[in-house]
Amino acid sequence: MAVAQKQPVRDFLLDLFNIAIKSVQAKMVLPAHLPLEPPIGKTLVLGAGKAAAAMAAAAQNTLDYPLTGLVITPAGHDCPLPDTRIKMLTAAHPIPDDRSVLAARTFLDMAGHCDPDDRLIFLGSGGGSSLLSLPVPGLSAIQKQEIIRHLLLSGASITQINMVRKHLSTVKGGRLTAACGTRDIHTFLISDVPGNDPAMIASGPTIADETTLSDAQNIIAKYKTPHQKVVEAILQNKANETPKPGTLAGQYTIIARAQDALEAATKLARKTGWQVECLGDRVEGEAFQIGKQHARLALDLKARNGRWLLLSGGELTVKVKNKNGAGGPNLEYLAGLALALNGEPGISALACDTDGIDGSKKNAGGFIGPDTLQSGVESGLNLRQHLKTNQTYRFFENLNDLIFTGPTLTNVNDFRAIAIES
Q1: Strand order in the sheet with 68-74
Q2: Rounded distance, CA 37 to CA 335, Å?
Q3: How far apart are CA 339 and CA 345, in angstroms?
Q4: pLDDT tens, residue by residue, 43-97
Q5: Which domain holds residue 297?
Q6: What angle do CA 93, 177, 281 make, to 5 degrees?
């Protein structure tokens, strides 16, 4: 869990974040949903994402019939599995690597060898899209890496990126289910996607896809991705369309979402005497702009007197202008918030990614308070300039205002809390 040495209001915000993370841990949310009766045949467990290892451990600790399988997770997000019959691999994130290709091939092979009496349990969570990556014929792994990297740096939303991923993949967008030899398929998902569309979580390897080749074409054109001619040819080939709703077997359950984390934080805040205003779990947009908007909301709440907590979840994006910069969406959100508040007394905030990683560094996020801008000036740092050059990490690092949790083994996207005291 996160640790820091700060004044009481920041300790309170840290407590909120910790209870939010605890509420969406696999061991807390998965066991109640698992099928307790065994199938006639064997049970194959496949999983991909930042929570995949923790979900597999929870499944093994809950089910008393034999399980075999494979899960893949980013390095550092692994955990011990009770039974070695479920193997674990690690691969790169957010850009796929050779291990991602190997995992996708292996998943398709293992699912294809299921018999009709067997059962497939698929465990999906955020991060799964890059961990399972097998391009369609005509597209190389390197080309796909460059396309996804470009979209990530251009500020495309997770929904837009996953639409493209699904139509350039042989395993995503329901194709794993289409390749499976059994219809007894159970998918359990921890959602990092605003709106909780199961077909978007980990790009939905086992979930039918409503989006189309045309949707992917529009995104490629909008963001002017590399290899456009190659991609256009692929996206004009109807053989690369994903399976549509009503064509696939199986069932799914979303076992944790951002709203669950927000509700856990709300409960603790109200218990300790705070009034809570929650903006929901679907907040999207450019990070520093959303920070500016939330500053206005915080000032409005302050005018109403009392102690207020402004909560929000969802996923924010960053348009990367400096490819050598450091600092993810949560720090850019905090920078926009701090600049707009301009040292307003009585307002502090925390913003973190619930997977424990904000952007390219190892921090989960950070803090701001009424003294943030002045402390920066005294340290010879200009927050506005650091924001302009995507160097917010350096600013918050110098103020000792970063939050480090390490990988949390779950992922319901961003968690933001603004404490407002009149």
Answers
A1: 86-91, 68-74, 43-48, 119-125, 185-190, 251-256
A2: 51
A3: 13
A4: 999 999 999 999 999 999 999 999 999 999 999 999 999 989 999 999 998 889 9
A5: 8-22+259-421
A6: 50
Please indicate, yes or no, whether residues 308 and 385 belong to a single structural domain of this protein: yes
The number of beta carbons lying within 10 Å of the beta carbon of residue 311 is: 22
Locate 27 and state its tokens.
Answer: 């061991």
372 domain-assigned = yes
- Which residue bears the tokens 């990126």? 161
Say whether both 245 and 301 belong to one domain. Answer: no
Residue 1 lies in a domain: no
Residue 186 has φ and ψ, to the nearest 5°, of: -120, 120
What whole-number distance in Å separates Cα of residue 13 and Cα of residue 348? 9
The count of residues in the chain is: 422
Contact 344, 296 (CB under 8 A): no
Interatomic CA distance for residues 192 and 212, integer angstroms? 22
**6 has pLDDT over 80:** no
What pLDDT shows up at residue 200? 97
Residues 24 and 202: their CA atoms lie apart, in Å, by 17
In DSSP notation, 60-73 reads: HHH--S--EEEEEE
For residue range 308-334, list pLDDT tens digits in order.
Answer: 999 999 999 998 888 778 889 999 999
Report how far residue 401's alpha carbon sits from residue 374's, in angstroms, rounded to the nearest whole number: 14
399, pLDDT greater than 70: yes
Q: What is the pLDDT of residue 94?
A: 87
Query: Which region among 3-12, 109-118, 135-144 has the lowest average model confidence (pLDDT)?
Result: 3-12
Q: How many CA atoms lie within 13 A of 342 on its CB side?
A: 3
Report pLDDT for 196.
Answer: 96
pLDDT at 322: 82
At 175, which CATH number? 3.40.50.10180
Task: Check residue 422 and give its pLDDT.
Answer: 85
Q: Residue holding tokens 């890059």? A: 130
In this prediction, residue 359 carries a pLDDT of 83
Question: Which residues lie closer than 8 Å to 401 by C-beta, 6 or more apart?
Answer: 366, 367, 368, 372
DSSP-assigned letter for residue 390: T
- Per the structure, the count of domains in the chain is 2
Instruction: Give the model's pLDDT for residue 3.
Output: 42
Residue type, 309: L
pLDDT for the residue numbered 126: 94
| Whole-Å CA distances, 175 to 95, 150, 179, 243, 355 | 21, 25, 6, 7, 27
Query: Could you say which DSSP state residue 172 is in?
Result: T
